[in-house]
What we know:
Layout: H1 3-6, H2 11-16, H3 64-86, H4 95-126, H5 132-142
Helix pairs in contact: 3-4
Amino acid sequence: MKQSETKAPGMIWSMLQCKCPHCRRGDMFKAANPYKLKSTLEMHKHCPVCGTDFEPEVGFYFGTGYVSYGLCIALTVASFLFCLTTFGFSIKDNSLFYWLGGNVLMLIVLQPVIMRLSRVIWLSFFTKYESKEIAWKHSKHRN
């Protein structure tokens, strides 16, 4: 048996890869590339590995707006602190406005990734992680 099969995937890494929060192995989204804008948010109905339902109820993902907002604020604060410590801001030049324009551009470019990540994080709030063996046993009972 390979070491990667026995070691449990990390929660943060699984979220960044948009994996199922229940088994941390199955893909949540049909298309791997978030920049295919027609299919950015198309999700599997169930996890291909463990069978977890990705839409437990109608309107479940309305709460992802709060997560997305939090992620955007965190990115904005991080970019502000990076630019402040690296370049500094001054009233005499337009550096603050350059940062503001760059930050808006960064958030627009990262929006498909942020939307996907907010869905994964939101579902992770309500789904308990189980090891591969336990998740597989539960999926046999679901099917």
